[in-house]
Amino acid sequence: QVQLQESGPGLVKPSETLSLTCTVSGGSISSYYWSWIRQPPGKGLEWIGYIYYSGSTNYNPSLKSRVTISVDTSKNQFSLKLSSVTAADTAVYYCARVATHYYGSGGYYYYMDVWGKGTTVTVSS
Amino acid sequence: EIVLTQSPGTLSLSPGERATLSCRASQSVSSSYLAWYQQKPGQAPRLLIYGASSRATGIPDRFSGSGSGTDFTLTISRLEPEDFAVYYCQQWAGTFGQGTKLEIK
After folding, report:
1. A41, A91 in Cβ contact below 8 A?
2. Predicted confidence (pLDDT) at residue A106 exceeds the cutoff of 90
3. Ramachandran region of residue A31, left (φ > 0), alpha (ψ -120 to 50) or beta?
4. Residue A83 near residue A17 (C-beta atoms within 8 A)
5. Is the CB of A111 less than 8 angstroms away from the CB of B45?
6. Among A62, B19, B71, B91, which is 20 to 30 Å from B3 by CA?
7. CA distance B101 to B97
8. Is A103 a residue whose pLDDT tops 90?
């Protein structure tokens, strides 16, 4: 059974770079898309971006200038970097596996079926 | 960017009642990309429905999804105590709706 675990500093100073890693256990990182999502305190979910195991990426346009997602298949990990952080980036950060499911006629379902427990990152001096 | 608007913001119902949650998109969304998630306090979201109407593994059949184009619905036929939570719709690789909080009346 695939499990995901986020790790990284819980406190980041303003203007610095937030760095998180998601470790995939119980399965291979290959042949899947992997995603980052965040949730500010008391607010809703915000999709940050995804990466395919081969390295192709897609980011939320509102964060694109500050986000980098990378993958290390040898370690079964993928990572998030968010630069120039402010207090508005304080949130619980989740990583998730993206399942793709062929349903015929060239069509695929895409959905996030396995989630990590989340890690809280606070931006403060 | 497609905006997903969920309604109502809060829904107050009693166990045993039927819940109908709406997700409306600002422009047409492929049904194959529309998913619903449930989130309880202090927990990660859990996938309920994908492809607008397919239940995820292990999800009880009291949960059902429907819709196409710009209007999607999550229905819970008979509420159980454990169903009171926040529900989000999402278009794959896009925004989430703002959520509907389902609370006990």
Report:
1. yes
2. no
3. left
4. yes
5. no
6. B19
7. 12
8. no
